[in-house]
Design brief:
Layout (H helix, E strand, L loop, with lengths): L1 E5 L5 E5 L11 E9 L2 H7 L10 E2 L4 E8 L11 E4 L9 H4 L25 E4 L2 H4 E3 L6 H5 L4 H11 L8 E5 L3 H10 L6 E6 L2 H9 L4 E4 L4 H8 L5 E6 L4 H10 E9 L11 H4 L5 E3 L8 H9 L9 E5 L4 H9 L1 H4 L3 E5 L17
Parallel strand pairs: 9-10, 9-12, 10-11, 12-13, 13-14, 15-16
Antiparallel strand pairs: 1-2, 1-4, 3-5, 3-7, 3-16, 5-6, 6-8
Length: 361
């Protein structure tokens, strides 16, 4: 098979590799029909995630067709079209029993494209399949479903729910990349008073407005003063950090009101200063988190019912073999205007298995 291989900081290649095989009776092998690139993959390429070693196949988001299933798999079978979650869950450890799948102690958590080979390939082995892949309704578009592998559960769980968005709240989302845009869309579910989106790119701010942001402001135009003006100097009830750099985190801390909530979603590759000398007296709640994906079944139901605005977020599409070109477009988003890239072909129904590998059961 072909796969996108990380060969060290700033080095990757679309290479020939052996097809993956079942390593455990709970595994499935999925033929990848649609895949995308995450901002976390760019962090890996920059060397920000040292756990990812050279030779690793990247990627943790995909839609595909099950072509092989282990003897212990009960929820899917060969021929099923599935969403591959960014989080794998053993289902047995303490954290999985609490629904904290991202903290799995049994060999799961964020493993795809991190500690085991990932989804940016023609085939991928997915561990703990019963909790880590989700069968898709026939009418759901592959590229729409792809956005529920990571960015929508992440924005909803780590941003909206951790931030405890409530009716009439002033919500600020700093960073209008894919996760920030999904945070705007899912925050609308809780009827906030206003949503303010902050970013450096006007194209992303336009996308935020189309997804429900009431106010948009360029990060160079003093968003802190705007928030103060709109709240009579009080500050925002909820501020979500969806960038992952020290400057934006500190901006969020300055924009939140006393008693407010900061929900950090961004992936930070370096230290950030927490100004407790200023915040200790303000009753601030700060949350962090890796997505658990417990909300994925609910989000899939909403997607199937037409309740999630997903289709506008994938701005560039490529064939699977154009992986390196897609990376180039995605990491130059300030020039290309890319929000989310999709690779593969749109599949609306389960693929036939003629010529594919058979079930080993």
């Amino acid at each position: 098979m072909k796969a996108l291989v990380f060969n060290g900081p700033d080095r990757m290649a679309w290479e020939d590799l052996p097809d993956p095989g079942l390593g455990d009776p709970a595994d499935v092998i999925v033929k990848v029909d649609a895949v995308t690139i995450c901002g976390t993959d760019l962090h890996i390429l920059k060397g920000d995630v040292p756990e990812v070693t050279p030779g690793r196949v990247l990627g943790h988001e995909a839609v595909g067709t099950v072509v092989e299933a282990g003897d212990d798999v009960r929820t899917v079978q060969p021929g099923d079209r599935v969403l591959v979650s960014c989080i794998s869950a053993c289902g047995r450890c303490r954290f999985c029993r609490e629904g904290r799948y991202g903290q799995c102690l049994g060999g799961g958590g964020w493993v795809l494209g991190h500690t085991i080979d990932g989804t940016q390939a023609e085939y991928v082995r997915v561990p703990f399949a019963d909790l880590s892949v989700h069968r898709l309704p026939a009418g759901v578009d592959s590229f729409d479903a792809l956005l529920l592998a990571d960015i929508f559960p992440t924005s909803y769980e780590v941003g909206v729910l951790n931030g405890n968005v409530r009716p009439a709240d002033t919500v600020v989302v700093v960073g209008a990349g894919p996760v920030g845009l999904a945070a705007v869309a899912t925050a609308r579910l809780y009827s906030p008073g206003r949503i303010i989106a902050v970013d450096l790119a006007d194209t992303r701010l336009s996308a935020a407005q189309s997804l429900g942001a009431d106010v948009t402001v360029n990060a160079g135009d003093d968003p802190e003063q705007l928030v103060a003006d709109l709240t009579d100097g009080l500050g925002a009830d909820v501020v979500m950090e969806a960038v992952g750099v020290p400057a934006t985190f500190e901006m969020c801390a300055r924009m939140v009101r006393p008693g407010g909530r900061i929900a950090n979603i961004g992936v930070h590759g370096g230290p950030v200063t927490l100004h407790l000398e200023q915040l200790w007296i303000k009753d601030i709640t700060l949350t962090t988190g890796l997505v658990d994906t417990y909300s994925t079944p609910m989000l899939l139901d909403m997607l199937s019912a037409g309740r999630l605005p997903t289709s506008s977020l994938i701005t560039h599409r490529f064939e699977l073999g154009q992986m390196e070109e897609a990376y180039d477009v995605f990491r130059r988003a300030d020039v290309t205007g890319a929000l989310k890239v999709g690779l593969g072909g749109p599949q609306h129904t389960a693929l036939t298995l003629s010529g594919a590998r058979a079930n080993t059961r």
